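Write out the bound-state structure for adenosine-5'-diphosphate.
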Amino acid sequence: MSQAVLQLEKVRKSFGSEVVLEDISFKVLEHKATVFIGASGSGKSTLLRCINLLDQIDDGQILLDGQDISAADVNPDEVRKKLGMVFQSFNLFPHMTVLENVILAPTKVQKVAKEKAIDEALELLNKFGLREKADQYPDRLSGGQQQRVAIIRSLSRHPRLLLLDEITSALDPVLVNEVLSTVRDLKSEGMTMVLATHEMGFAKQVADELCYLHQGRILEWGSPKKILENPKKVETKEFLRRLHQAGRL
Ligand code: ADP
Ligand code: MG
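---
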């Protein structure tokens, strides 16, 4: 079996006296996607932020390609070069064009020559149908297009692992599909990913493993089919029942 791209071992995180993540262990193999579902406040964003070293864990280990990135002597900037992260709300710089947004990390952080970065950026924009937006400012794009640019920007670093945190939750329902379809494309190309989402249909399509997070613990995990169609824990059943009631399942 191949080595995991990402492995968490008994990760624990608290804010003050509030324990937000407890006993979190899972691995993500290359080309696989692990999807986290769970109520608001269950710890999904904190988990992704911990993996990206934006929040520091209190206990346990986070291994990226076998390297302990949670160790005290690790340089977070070096680790983040290998990770792409996209958040819920758009994170494009409003004063930069689409192209400038996309080449920022490669040129400034990874010291790629500007010409090369531009070529690569245009190729990515072209691939995802946004080539003609290259010279526009973000506010001229729809929310869905902006979020796709944010995904493209995270790809410009050639990440080993992509972290996506509820990337459609700030979007109009009609714009959700174009963003999800971009993620499906990436998955079929073999990108390794960890996602948090409240789109269960999408979770079912892309997840190799689905984890139900409840009050900071992975309460149930397995194939999407198993979790969504045959949940074992009473809390998972209740979560899915509420989604169903709200018409979201
Ligand atoms: P989710 O993404 O599943 O909605 P979060 O990870 O955002 O959950 O939040 C989990 C818990 O951690 C919540 O109770 C939230 O209030 C708390 N929390 C998140 N970030 C911070 C922070 N920076 N300081 C204090 N508490 C926080
Ligand atoms: Mg969140």
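---
The chain has a mean pLDDT of 95.
The first helix runs from residue 44 to 51.
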